[in-house]
Amino acid sequence: MKRIVFFIALVLLSFSFAPIKKLSPYIFEALFRFPNKIENTENPITVKGANLGKLLFYDTILSQDYSMSCASCHKQEFAFADNVNFSQGIDSSLMTRNTMPLFNLAWYSSFFWDGRSSSIEDQVFVPVAAHNEMNLSWKEAAKRLNGNNLYQKEFKKVFGVSKIDSTHIAKAIAQFERTLISNQSKYDRVIQGKDKFTAAELNGFIIVNDQSMGDCLHCHITDAHALGTNGKFANNGLDSDYTLTDKGKFGFSKNEKDIGKFKIPSLRNIALTAPYMHDGRFETLEEVLDFYSEGVQSSKYIDSKMQYAHQGGVQLSDKDKKDVIAFLKTLTDSVFIQNPEFHSPY
């Protein structure tokens, strides 16, 4: 009898020390001509973590009056951007800058038009609490999720916690946002040797990457790697007088050299993300090309790479502009904007 009791106790003890089953990591496919991602070792991406982040991304529970979610301003059909100059927050409050798209974020080291956040996790904290966006305190956000049975169970599975806090919420959303990868456009097929540009598209590609023509390659990289941006900040000559306009990165850094500098967006999916620039001042790609061709405003703050600013721009012909736009449209990733993996779970 003693042996039986001892055996049962031994079995129970072995179960109590059994290792907790690890969550399945989220597996990313191999990407052609992409640089290395910036890994966050403190928030490794798992399948369950990304799914939890997607629930939160589409849930209105994180807004003060339950009227909006992250997806209210970041819509999949627009490459997770919005199609208006300024998105609307709580009580129809207008935001102060154009909504940036969300894709290939794992390669960026700074976020927002002015670079005020250095990680995706840090970025998540801003819109939820912003008064003209979701306007919800993080204390209340945590309270709501702790009182929700579904979220209690899911956060327990993903992070092993019985009490949810703002850090866990930000980590979950960041995991989902890191899975938003766009790499299946015609441009991608061409550089992989699976497709060919038309004559107009090829000429547009050449113009974009020729310093004596479009001179776009310094900021919007499509030849050396496939991100479509160098991820940095620049004053591209939108304005010459910054006394009354948005001063860009300067508002965050207070460094005079940053006046008029804004984050350089990717050319990927550019045909889907109108209107353009930080204030949405250009409604069409045609207007954007007109600006870079003959509308650049020179000032002491303009980026040195804008080498044709002294003549108002690169002076493209109408045909060249059309060809550049033809190339830009090859960067549209229809697979990405239709991918059911990123659809609302509700």
Trace the largest sheet across and list its strands: 1-2
* Helix run count: 12
Mean residue pLDDT: 94
The whole-angstrom Rg is: 24 Å
Poorly predicted ranges (pLDDT <50, ≥5 residues)? 4-20
Envelope shape: globular
Structural class: mainly alpha
Residues in β-strands, percent: under 5%
User: Any idea of the CATH topology of the largest domain?
Assistant: Cytochrome Bc1 Complex, Chain D, domain 2
Task: Write a concise keyword list for the protein shown above.
346 residues; mainly alpha; Cytochrome Bc1 Complex, Chain D, domain 2; two-stranded antiparallel ribbon
Topology overview:
Blueprint (H helix, E strand, L loop, with lengths): L1 H15 L30 H12 L61 H10 L8 H9 L2 H11 L6 H13 L7 H6 L7 H10 L24 E2 L15 H4 L8 E2 L21 H11 L22 H12 L4 H5 L8
Antiparallel strand pairs: 1-2
Helix pairs in contact: 2-6, 3-6, 8-11, 10-11
Task: Tell me about this structure.
The protein has helices spanning 2-16, 47-58, 120-129, 138-146, 149-159, 166-178, 186-191, 199-208, 250-253, 285-295, 318-329, 334-338, and strands spanning 233-234, 262-263. With 346 residues, it is mainly α. The chain has two domains: 16-182, Cytochrome Bc1 Complex, Chain D, domain 2 (Orthogonal Bundle), CATH 1.10.760.10; 186-330, Orthogonal Bundle (Cytochrome Bc1 Complex, Chain D, domain 2). It has a two-stranded antiparallel sheet. The chain is globular. Residues 4-20 have low confidence and may be disordered.
